[in-house]
Amino acid sequence: MNTTPYETRHETIDTVIVGAGQAGLATAYHLGRCGHECVVLDRSPRVGDNWRQQWDSLRLYSPTRYDGLPGLRFPGRPWSYPGKEDVAAYLESYAKHHDLPVRMGTWVRRIERDGERFTVTTDTGTISCANVVIATGTFGRTPSIPDFAADLDPSILQLHSSEYRRPGQLGPGPVLVVGASHSGTDIAYELAEHHETTLAGRDCGQIPFRLESARMRLVFPVLIFAWRHVLTRRTPIGRKVMPEIRFHGGPMLRVKRSDLEARHVRRLTERVEGVRDGRPVLSDGTVVDCATVVWATGFQQVFDWLDLPVIGADGWPQEYRGVSPDVPGLFFCGLSFQYAFSSMVLPGVGRDAAYVAKQISSRSRNTVLQAA
Asked: Which of 295, 315, 331 is the endpoint of a domain?
């Protein structure tokens, strides 16, 4: 595995995969099994760095036995829940175990069409390729923070959830966590042990069982089946859930409403919609006095480096199962609800990667036959 920047002026490779997370690595694995040439590019120094940059106490919401990518079991006790460092180490070992063609420290600046091929411009040169797979993350990596955040009093510390690591980052005083999906509730629960904490945002619901409970061992296989085969883009219920997940986040998973109540978290279901006298103000006019705001408001899909007509009015790529209908040779992997609810979790990304790799291989075979 090559994990250092590969300096070159220009080269030709059949398929370029952008992003060395679980989606990009799984796609490279399946392409390799097909004997298909590819390279995986990522701007981070090490495989797994996106996970290392999460908050310290983060653990997966799926047990170890379901977290392995194709071709390598996730190590550990089957019903344990890996932490962020465990996931990062696993992804790094996965790339090494399969000797995947990964180039870390390589920043993709632009991708554009060049006749029937693509030109991928990086900070080390250009690559001409027949196929491109965008595997840059489920929800992108650009924090989604409202514009009015700039109007908050400068004395208020503001952190996006991607910047939050541990309670020790915060100074004294009350905390407002904005966004009540699973990440927001996890962070609010942790902070409430040390700070007076308010959690604001719509109630996204909660799963009824404890992840670590014996009951969950019976229920989780049913959940996996539903995530993979029921909540899909082919079913009415899946199509109904899809925009909710993409734009509003998923339900509370590890932390429950009762946990928040036990730590005296002040729960407000109104949205934070502006600023008054330097303080956050809710949709009902309530002003929240706080010393810190944690924006657990997700990420934006930003593809301004992708010079191709594939982004819809909602900001998401126009694709089905990761295949662009308008730009032949362009693919995506790792998107939320790329095919099913499971697409955004480790137990589901391998299936999506296999499908994308199959489409690439089929396209390449057809190209060769047409040329002959």
From this structure: 295
